[in-house]
Amino acid sequence: MVARRVFVGLGLSLLGCSADSVDEREPTLDTIGVFVARSAPDGGYTLHRVLYALRLQTDDTSLFISTYAVHASTLDGARALARSGPLPVDVEVQVVSQRQFGSVPYEIVWFRSLTPEERARVL
Amino acid sequence: MRLPGLLLGAFVLVAAGGNGVARAEEKSSLGPSILKVPMLERRAEQGILTPVPLDLELPEDLPARRVLVHYRIHGSKEWTTLELLHYGKRWVGAIPCLEVSTITGDVSYYVRIHDAAGGVIGYSGSRHSPYRVTIKHESQLASSAAAPARCPDPADCPPGLLGCPSATVERIPCRSDSDCEGGLSCGWDGFCELDERSHNWLGLDLEAGLGVVSETGACSVPNQENEGYACYRESDGAIYTGRPVYTNEPLGVGTTPLRIVLGYERLISENTLLGARFGYAFTGAGPTPRGGLDFIPFSGELRATHVFGSDPFASSGLRPFALVAAGYAQHDIRVTVHARHDLGYAVDQGGNDWEQDLETWRRAGDGYVGVGGGLLWLTSQGFGVAGELRAVQAFPYGAFVMTCDAGIRVGF
Q: How far is A1 from chain B (nearest CA, A)?
């Protein structure tokens, strides 16, 4: 019994040695704070930001998003806009179904953690 | 027991208990024992062109290694040193005939006895009160003292052999400055010398540096709280309290504060300086996070320096040197750390980008050890210009720092 405990302890300490290699999680549509570039009907991309994600029992998620009053012609342009700092807001908060929101081609172009002011829009 | 003089004018010292000659136990200000000879026996006379024989017997308990005779011919200002030859219990020699030559007047001399370490352990006579042998023409001497005046050919009787003139001593052994005379001091090699070196050196330097620090996980909250890091967002200058992903970032290189350094070093041997330096960092200190300890601009260091070359402080010129040092200093090192936000945490400091550069300061120190080297350009024996490069390891808040110093040295 003692030997087994020692073995388990050694195993845990060895696992601890690999702490440097942390799995990097990629942002998804329900990651709070992501910027999403979504294909616009007339070409180019609109820019949105997920402020909150509420998981529902219906296997869907309600996304609280802001829509910015900007238009990017390319994904790189949308990413540059997202990284640039404060953007003019078109729709402050809008609740949409993730399934519906994701039905249009989109790409997550950036992430920034929400400031207390941004968080206050939905709480 | 008393030994007879070899010739007229010979000087004889005998052991304690001898006839009229005694060894005193008193200590002089120099420390050595004193061999006394009554003043009446301090004078003799002899003819020209004859050597002055010297014959000395010392107490057996006196640990004599060398016996030196210092003499001066009449009219000369310089003292010349001879070494007596050890022959059984006696120490014998002679002031060379050619030195006596035909110069009439007093030949002055005194004797100093050195131990194995070079220290003077006994003496008889002194520069101020020497023995005197008056050199006269043969016509002025008593007939019994008259001797054929003719110097032997030096080839027949080379200096240093028994019965021949004594060998001249170029370097007088010593153990301390008190063993030396005539403005000489005891050199580090155990011989009296005219020391014109500057033994004390003041230095004024400007010091800059580059520090190398680890950037992996540098801006995590634990590292900022415990390892001397402080990270600030470039976007708004706020201190970073986010959660970075641990990635294998390369080592960061940044500048350290500029310091002005005042130093004192003492020459303790021909090539070695020991000293202390004090510095003040006048620019380059990083910000102190709220609740942290303020940057201490003062620094202190003890160092030992080896200057290469033969007697490097005896003359001007370019001198390479190596040094070891240890001391106290805070090294604020500024680097830019790339932080990638860990998306696994829902609650976090607001406004952190997915990836961002952080202005990061590492306050390394407060102790350090270092090695280095440089060049000292002595423009004279009392002034020089120095430049040095040092590799420094700071601890316990570790960083590797390369410092570069340039400044002046003033010796006195």
A: 36
